[in-house]
Design a protein that fits this description.
The protein is α/β, with parallel strands linked by helices and 284 residues long. The protein is built from 10 helices and 12 strands. It has a single domain, classed as 3-Layer(aba) Sandwich (Rossmann fold), CATH 3.40.50. Strands 2-1-3-4-5-10 form a 6-stranded parallel beta sheet, sandwiched between helices. A two-stranded parallel ribbon has the order 6-9. Helix 1 links the parallel strand 1 and strand 2. Helix 1 crosses helix 7 and helix 6 packs across helix 8.
C-alpha cells in the first residue's frame, strides 16, 4: 500500500514511517521544512505527485500555549491545513487519517469521553483541531479521525523527560492534581493507527493507553520507578499554574470504537514501564 505521511520528522510521524516500512508498505513523508500544509497549491501538487492510497496527516502545531497566543495561526495550520490535505487526498481517491486530540472536549464530563460525544473545545488549540476534524469530514468521504492524548516518545522533550530532568537537577516539583487524561506511548499509538488504517473502516476513533491519571499521578509513577521515590512533589491545582492556555480538566478518552473492531492499547502504566526500560531508566 502506498502511504503518504505529513509531519514525517515528528515523533509520531517518524514512528509511523518505521512501523509501516517494517511491515512492507511503500511509505513517503513530508515535514514542515518541505511542505507548508497551509499552501493549497503546494499540497495538491505534492499529493498528486505521490498518488498515495492512504494519507496520514500527523503534522500539527501542538504548542498549546503558543496556539493560545496566536489563535489565527493555530486555525490556519491545524484547521485549514488539515482541510487542504483532506481535499487533495479526496481528489486522488486516498483514504485520509487525521490525528486529533482529546482537547476537542471541554473536560467537564464525569466519565471518559466516547468518540461520538459532542466536542466543545475551550482553548484555541482544541478549537483548531476540531476545525480540522470538521474539514476532514466534509472534504474526504473516506476518512479516519484518531484522537489521542498526553503523548510521550523517545527523543525530544515531553512530560516524562521534564519531570526526570527537574528531579535529577534537584529542582522543586509542583504538579497539578486536577488535570486528568491518558498518558499515551507514541509507539503504541503508531501501532494502533496502522491497525485502524489497514481496516479501511471510516469513522472517529480514540487511541490512548488504557486508564486515566492526573498529571500528579503520572509524575509520581515515573519518579517511583526511576530511583526517585523519595523526591517530593508539591500537589497543586491548575489554578496555581498560570499559563496562556486553559486546559480541559477531566479529559480522559475511552477507546470504545477502536476496541469494537479489535484495536486495543495496554494500560498506561505498562506503556510507561516499556518506555523507561528502553531508555534504561526503569528500576522497578
Amino acid at each position: 500500500m502506498r502511504v503518504w505521511i505529513t509531519g514525517a520528522n515528528g515523533r509520531l510521524g517518524s514512528r509511523l514511517m518505521q512501523v509501516l516500512t517494517q511491515v512492507g508498505h511503500n511509505v513517503a513523508g513530508v515535514d514542515v521544512e518541505t511542505l507548508d500544509v497551509t499552501d493549497w497549491v503546494a499540497v495538491r501538487a505534492a499529493v498528486r505527485t505521490s498518488r498515495p492510497e492512504v494519507v496520514i496527516h500527523a503534522a500539527a502545531w501542538t504548542d498549546v500555549d503558543g496556539c493560545a497566543r496566536e489563535p489565527e495561526r493555530a486555525y490556519r495550520q491545524n484547521g485549514l491545513g488539515a482541510g487542504n490535505v483532506a481535499a487533495a487526498s479526496a481528489e486522488v481517491g486516498a483514504m485520509m487519517v487525521y490525528i486529533s486530540t482529546n482537547e476537542v472536549f471541554d473536560g467537564q464530563a464525569e466519565r471518559p469521553y466516547w468518540e461520538y460525544d459532542a466536542p466543545r473545545p475551550i482553548n484555541p488549540y482544541g478549537a483548531s483541531k476540531w476545525a480540522g476534524e470538521q474539514m476532514v469530514m466534509r472534504a474526504s468521504p473516506r476518512h479516519q479521525i484518531v484522537r489521542t492524548a498526553w503523548l510521550f516518545a523517545h527523543g525530544g522533550k515531553n512530560f516524562i523527560q521534564s519531570i526526570l530532568g527537574a528531579a535529577q537537577a534537584g529542582k522543586p516539583l509542583r504538579v497539578v492534581t486536577d488535570e486528568i487524561a491518558n498518558p499515551t506511548y507514541t509507539d503504541d499509538l503508531a501501532t494502533a493507527v496502522v491497525q485502524l488504517m489497514l481496516m479501511e473502516r471510516a469513522g472517529v476513533y480514540h487511541a490512548v493507553n488504557a486508564g486515566a491519571a492526573s498529571r500528579y499521578d503520572f509524575a509520581r509513577y515515573v519518579l517511583d520507578h526511576t530511583g526517585h521515590a523519595q523526591t517530593p512533589i508539591e500537589a497543586i491545582t491548575h489554578a496555581d499554574w498560570a499559563r496562556p492556555s486553559t486546559p480541559p480538566l477531566r479529559c480522559a478518552l475511552d477507546n470504545h470504537a477502536a476496541a469494537s473492531v479489535g484495536v486495543t492499547l495496554r494500560p498506561w502504566q505498562a506503556a510507561v514501564e516499556a518506555f523507561l526500560r528502553r531508555e534504561g531508566l526503569w528500576v522497578g
